[in-house]
From TrEMBL:
Name of the protein in question: ATP-dependent DNA helicase RecG C-terminal domain-containing protein
InterPro entries: WH-like_DNA-bd_sf
Organism expressing this protein natively: Flavihumibacter fluminis
Gene3D superfamilies, per the entry: Winged helix-like DNA-binding domain superfamily/Winged helix DNA-binding domain (1.10.10.10)
Length: 196
């Protein structure tokens, strides 16, 4: 890490230079550091869920901005809102998407609902933990199930198949790309209880 001082070329310069250097401005000083090596970083299930959500948000924003009518409506809405007036439309759409969908429900609501699912279906601890994750983030797959419960792939596959058989989950896709969403009506009934 190096601090660049009194250099007009790098004054308030920020961003990256290829994959070798990163420039940041901290308290008015430009700091130069090596580009971080993230290849060995193991992300948690929560981080992976946020990454997927962010990827969806970017795709949503791009699709909205392709349509000229939708883009005009977004720009018009941004002009009327002083907080959004000087922002990039892509950033506005991404942040709105994330705000709307960041959590399906809070951790407390999910915990209460998992208790109800346990009473109705007699789930094991692994299934309960995965169900709580699913209630918070809206989707789960085999890899996330493995990370949440620290089990083998066959055990994760059996547990998820059991949840599908019981009618709690609905599978989408095949093989390693299979993802699971909630199907049971207990969720809809409980969401109405939380809203009232």
């Amino acid at each position: 890490m190096a601090i660049v001082q009194n250099n007009l070329l790098f004054h308030n310069f920020h961003g990256k230079f290829g994959k070798s250097m990163v420039f940041r401005v901290v308290r008015g000083k430009t700091i130069v550091s090596k580009y971080p090596d993230m290849s060995r970083v193991e992300r948690s299930p929560d981080q992976k869920a946020y990454n997927n959500l962010f990827r969806e948000a970017v795709q949503h924003a791009k699709s909205e901005l392709i349509d000229p009518n939708t883009k005009a409506a977004v720009l018009n809405r941004m002009k009327r809102n002083p907080k959004l007036k000087d922002r990039n439309p892509m950033n506005v759409l991404v942040s709105e998407y994330l705000r709307e969908r960041s959590y399906i429900m809070s951790r407390e609501e999910a915990s209460m609902l998992v208790v109800q699912y346990n009473q109705k279906y007699q789930l094991n601890e692994r299934q309960s933990a995965a169900l709580k994750f699913l209630l918070i983030y809206g989707e789960i797959n085999n890899t996330l199930y493995l990370q949440i419960n620290k089990v083998s792939r066959p055990t994760a596959t059996r547990d998820l198949a059991d949840l599908v058989t019981k009618g709690i989950l609905l599978s989408k896709g095949k093989g390693p790309a299979t993802s699971y969403k909630l199907q049971d009506k207990l969720l809809d009934e409980s969401i109405n209880l939380f809203k009232n």
